[in-house]
Amino acid sequence: MTKTIVVKIGTSSLTQPETGQLALSSIATLAETLCDLRRKGHRVILVSSGAVGVGCARLGLTERPKTIALKQAVAAVGQGRLMRIYDDLFSILQQPIAQVLLTRADLVQRSRYLNANNTFQELLGLGVIPIVNENDTVAVEELKFGDNDTLSALVASLVEADWLFLLTDVDRLYSADPRSVPDAKPISLVSSMQELTDLQIQTGGQGSQWGTGGMMTKISAARIAIAAGIRTVITQGQFPRNIEKIIQGELIGTHFAPQPEPTSARKRWIAYGLIPGGKLYLDKGAIAAVVKAGKSLLAAGIKAVEGEFDNQEAVQLCDSNGDEIARGLVNYNSEELQKICGRHSREIPSILGYEGADTVIHRDNLVLI
Ligand SMILES: Nc1ncnc2c1ncn2[C@@H]1O[C@H](COP(=O)(O)OP(=O)(O)O)[C@@H](O)[C@H]1O
Ligand SMILES: N[C@@H](CCC(=O)OP(=O)(O)O)C(=O)O
């Protein structure tokens, strides 16, 4: 059966750790593997990092740029070279590819989000392998994915993929960073979101020299993907052929089982496409109503409001520790909410001087995280 497969490869797998030069044999094997998947009728998207790493190698820079402007300039040098390498390899294999550079802004506006999906569907329908990266050269700080793990999960969710592969320089997820904790325990299967929380995985710092985000961003990417019903696998980029074996049922790497009842596409856009403009801190009663009873959020259960936002913007719903439990689209702006938080819905018209919505966030616009 035709599957939609998103494969993300990190800088650490695309380059050799000692020299920073391209890991040509891994990249060539990856290209061959993806072409084989295409030949079997699967729809394939590659999310490739490497613009900054390849740009640095081209310019003779020996460490990752620290300033944003330098990073953006270096990415502009590297992205073209990276695509040239992919185009050469895929052309030999007679596989058309496309470059898709995205910024977070492309997913915030619903019409642009849907348009991005249409473009992917059209490319996949044409048998093309889209090669996606963040548009680092123009992305501004507030509108960034920040790392390609998150980007790949959002793309997988957008196109409703069946599989997401996160290829990296370790063979799987461990209970802690195996580089600094030698007796860290390997994890083969994570069966639910709750199990992922219970495992309390230690992720240490930044990851490898050229990587962004390390294991932490892979775990949050897995959360986004499994909520969308996508089976997610963390495995080693040095052995791309394992992707085929995994699809055939071998338990290589770390598997994250998809949520049995995936969150709807619109709610996924609210939860992960939009950028939250503020936070609402809820009392225990409101948390129970929202989480356990699946109810709408009323003003009475809001203890405090943080940030400035308009009505219909996304906000984070947090417990008293500040831990996020849900996201949703608000029916009131932050100024109004400051006035009505903690108050009964029937008091709203007299406080604001006009009739407002009964709910602060309707349950159709509310997503548990
Ligand atoms: N719990 C963990 N399990 C496995 N690897 C971990 C863990 N915590 C941190 N890491 C580190 O994450 C690194 C991979 O992240 P990163 O360098 O960002 O890779 P990529 O370039 O593939 O995105 C590994 O080299 C490993 O040292
Ligand atoms: N967009 C950046 C990569 C960002 C990123 O997440 O890198 P990595 O952790 O190596 O997957 C680039 O092309 O260099």
From TrEMBL:
<dbReference type="InterPro" id="IPR005715">
    <property type="entry name" value="Glu_5kinase/COase_Synthase"/>
</dbReference>
<feature type="binding site">
    <location>
        <position position="8"/>
    </location>
    <ligand>
        <name>ATP</name>
    </ligand>
</feature>
<dbReference type="GO" id="GO:0004349">
    <property type="term" value="F:glutamate 5-kinase activity"/>
</dbReference>
<dbReference type="InterPro" id="IPR001048">
    <property type="entry name" value="Asp/Glu/Uridylate_kinase"/>
</dbReference>
<dbReference type="Pfam" id="PF00696">
    <property type="entry name" value="AA_kinase"/>
</dbReference>
<comment type="function">
    <text>Catalyzes the transfer of a phosphate group to glutamate to form L-glutamate 5-phosphate.</text>
</comment>
<dbReference type="Pfam" id="PF01472">
    <property type="entry name" value="PUA"/>
</dbReference>
<dbReference type="InterPro" id="IPR001057">
    <property type="entry name" value="Glu/AcGlu_kinase"/>
</dbReference>
<dbReference type="InterPro" id="IPR002478">
    <property type="entry name" value="PUA"/>
</dbReference>
<protein>
    <recommendedName>
        <fullName>Glutamate 5-kinase</fullName>
        <ecNumber>2.7.2.11</ecNumber>
    </recommendedName>
</protein>
<dbReference type="InterPro" id="IPR019797">
    <property type="entry name" value="Glutamate_5-kinase_CS"/>
</dbReference>
<keyword id="KW-0028">Amino-acid biosynthesis</keyword>
<dbReference type="InterPro" id="IPR036974">
    <property type="entry name" value="PUA_sf"/>
</dbReference>
<feature type="binding site">
    <location>
        <position position="49"/>
    </location>
    <ligand>
        <name>substrate</name>
    </ligand>
</feature>
<keyword id="KW-0808">Transferase</keyword>
<dbReference type="InterPro" id="IPR036393">
    <property type="entry name" value="AceGlu_kinase-like_sf"/>
</dbReference>
<comment type="pathway">
    <text>Amino-acid biosynthesis; L-proline biosynthesis; L-glutamate 5-semialdehyde from L-glutamate: step 1/2.</text>
</comment>
<dbReference type="InterPro" id="IPR041739">
    <property type="entry name" value="G5K_ProB"/>
</dbReference>
<keyword id="KW-0641">Proline biosynthesis</keyword>
<feature type="binding site">
    <location>
        <begin position="168"/>
        <end position="169"/>
    </location>
    <ligand>
        <name>ATP</name>
    </ligand>
</feature>
<keyword id="KW-0418">Kinase</keyword>
<feature type="binding site">
    <location>
        <begin position="212"/>
        <end position="218"/>
    </location>
    <ligand>
        <name>ATP</name>
    </ligand>
</feature>
<dbReference type="InterPro" id="IPR015947">
    <property type="entry name" value="PUA-like_sf"/>
</dbReference>
<feature type="domain" description="PUA">
    <location>
        <begin position="278"/>
        <end position="361"/>
    </location>
</feature>
<keyword id="KW-0067">ATP-binding</keyword>
<dbReference type="InterPro" id="IPR011529">
    <property type="entry name" value="Glu_5kinase"/>
</dbReference>
<feature type="binding site">
    <location>
        <position position="136"/>
    </location>
    <ligand>
        <name>substrate</name>
    </ligand>
</feature>
<keyword id="KW-0547">Nucleotide-binding</keyword>
<feature type="binding site">
    <location>
        <position position="148"/>
    </location>
    <ligand>
        <name>substrate</name>
    </ligand>
</feature>
<comment type="similarity">
    <text>Belongs to the glutamate 5-kinase family.</text>
</comment>
<keyword id="KW-0963">Cytoplasm</keyword>
